[in-house]
Specification:
The chain is mainly beta and 338 residues long. The protein is built from one helix and 29 strands. Strands 1, 3, 5, 6, 9 and 10 form a six-stranded mixed β-sheet that branches. Strands 12-19-18-14-15 form a five-stranded mixed β-sheet. Strands 2-4-8-7 form a four-stranded antiparallel β-sheet, with no helix packed on it. The radius of gyration is 47 Å and the shape is rod-shaped.
């Protein structure tokens, strides 16, 4: 058996490719009467059928294949002529890996919180890496949207605004092919919520209104600081008229995220004081002319308001004229209700 080796011109294929790239192989055996066997050696190893290293198919005229792993390969076509002589034709192909970025960096990050993780990139030969950032599919300036560091095989990231991002490593290998490896990241900020509002009704009175203070309580599941509250229908001086007043309140976290509105009913009531009781000294039905009569009043208010009194028929000197004298007294609260 005689083996002859043909020129590489009989097989046309790229000399450089990547594991993610199908290549087209063209062979000059289409009109041959005999079958063609395709084999491959990897890194100078033993010759094996091409399907051990590739996906796709090869026939007499060639075909399309993709290499499963990186390495230096020799693609060999063998055919036997009618005299039993074996002819082999070969071409060398160097296969580069598709760089893969591997990292456990969180894919969901809280706004303005720092996250870190190591990363690795599968590579062969010299490769340059350039990091970029996209938001909602649009390229953006990294420094405008966060703080990032990629030194010493680690990624450190902190985002300044919410949204859906891709942290992208553009990797150029020595073939000058550029690969895009993206890490999708959702940046979130959960709004706070109002858990309750303490309504403190006081009897402090001013201009026909009563002082009522509202003390809301808010919870932020992210642990963010509650920076303040906003109100609808709350008097600026916190004095409310008598009746029902409907107020809304919402909380705001340190990043400006608002809770839903929370409804508060402020119910201000005022009741008239009880009718006063009057005691007098001397405590007799009648007195002799010129006798000084001292009147004392006493009343309570159901709201606890301070009570003042209005008199009718009361003599300041306590000396009443001859005859029947009628003295009346009304209790008045701080709002003037009698």
């Amino acid at each position: 058996m005689i083996v002859t080796v043909g020129t590489t011109d009989d097989i046309i294929a790229p000399s450089i490719t990547h594991t993610d790239t199908p290549i087209t192989v063209t062979a000059a055996f289409e009109n041959s009467d005999n079958d063609v066997t395709w084999c491959i050696t990897k890194d100078g190893g033993e010759e094996k059928l091409y399907i051990n290293y590739c996906t796709g198919s090869l026939r007499k005229a060639g075909g399309q294949i993709s290499f499963k792993t990186s390495g230096t390969y020799r693609l060999i076509a063998s055919t036997t002529d009618n005299a039993g002589q074996i002819h082999k034709f070969s071409t060398d192909i160097r296969v580069y890996p598709k760089p893969n970025l591997t990292t456990s960096l969180s894919r969901r990050m809280h706004l303005n919180s720092q996250y870190s993780s190591s990363y690795t990139i599968e590579k062969w030969g010299n490769q340059s890496i350039e990091w970029k950032l996209e938001k909602e599919g649009t390229p953006i300036n990294m420094d405008d949207y966060g703080a990032f560091d990629f030194s010493n095989g680690n990624i450190t990231a902190r985002f300044f605004s919410e949204g859906n991002y891709e942290l992208i490593a553009y990797i150029e290998d020595e073939t000058e092919k550029v690969f895009r490896c993206a890490v999708p990241i959702e940046v979130y900020n959960t709004p706070p919520y109002i858990s309750g509002v303490l309504v403190n009704n006081t009897r402090q009175y001013k201009d026909g209104k009563y002082l009522v203070t509202l003390t809301p309580s808010a919870i932020d599941s992210d642990g963010d600081f509650i920076s303040g509250y906003e109100y609808i229908n709350k008097p600026s001086d916190n004095y409310y008229p008598v009746g029902k007043i409907y107020v809304k309140v919402r909380a705001k976290d340190i990043y400006g995220k608002y809770s839903e509105w929370y409804d508060v009913v402020v119910n201000v009531s005022n009741s008239a004081p009880n009718a006063p009781t009057i005691s007098r000294t001397p405590d007799t039905i009648s007195v002799t002319p010129g006798t000084k009569v001292i009147m004392k009043e006493s009343a309570t208010d159901p709201d606890g308001d301070t009570v003042s009194y209005e008199w009718e028929g009361l003599r300041e000197d306590g000396i009443y004229p001859l005859g029947k004298n009628i003295v009346r007294c009304k209790a008045v609260d701080t709002a003037g209700l009698k």
